[in-house]
Amino acid sequence: MNKRTVVVTGGASGIGRATAEAFAGEGEHVVIADISGEAARDVAKELGVDHVELDISDPESVDAAVAAVTARTGPIDVLVNNAGLAGGGGPITALDVAVFDRCVRVNFRGTFLMTRAVGAHMVAAGTRGAIVNISSIGARQPTPGLGHYEATKAAVEALTRSAALELAPHGIRVNAVAPGPVLTPMTAGFAADTAAREAWEARIPLGSIASVSDVVPSVVFLASPGARHITGASLQVDGGQLLG
Ligand SMILES: NC(=O)c1ccc[n+]([C@@H]2O[C@H](COP(=O)([O-])OP(=O)(O)OC[C@H]3O[C@@H](n4cnc5c(N)ncnc54)[C@H](O)[C@@H]3O)[C@@H](O)[C@H]2O)c1
User: What residue stretches are annotated with the Ketoreductase domain (predicted)?
Assistant: First the structure.
């Protein structure tokens, strides 16, 4: 297979970093796209991949980053829409509106803007590409205090299906991976709290919180030719948590 150009948003940390490393290990040309330019540069250097600084929630930043990447490497073959955050938590009746707005802006608007820009680019370039969105099982199963975050992931799943339908005539596939809790910098706080960690693990039939290496193979698969007949799907990687 020819080397593909793979853009991973939020690739400087956690699931995105491990995804970038996995695609690089398969010999693909990887671009880490992150709002933290310094972290993106350092991680890219460590992994021997490319990087670009962008804010996925800002259309001008997104368009500039897509233009910079394509000028440097040619067409983008794979987009992993991974960048996301919760930004805080709390009951819907008390949640700070600024936390809600930031979460919607990055997770929903950001995924929309990246899909819009890279989808249009793939269509124009005639690239039969793949887009993989990182959702969450929270899109389908509520946890008190995370309603704002989970609603953005439900929106990402709806966007996944719409984009899959609209881009299918161009041979572009759009899927999602929906992890349960994963040990990353995003969850480091709660994972360090033994009681909170045990309470979460009690919800997982397979008994443990995921590591990034439990999640990444599904992302790589959905972007691979082996998944050529799969589009509009959301694959839960949750140790069975959705069964409960
Ligand atoms: N960790 C979990 O338990 C878990 C579970 C389900 C889903 N997810 C999802 O997986 C994805 C990655 O999570 P993680 O745990 O690896 O998080 P993380 O905090 O370790 O990494 C997120 C990365 O995204 C970048 N980022 C944030 N805002 C950005 C923006 N506006 N533009 C560009 N980059 C931006 C950050 O700089 C960071 O490098 C997120 O979408 C998250 O919602 C995480």
Answer: 4-180
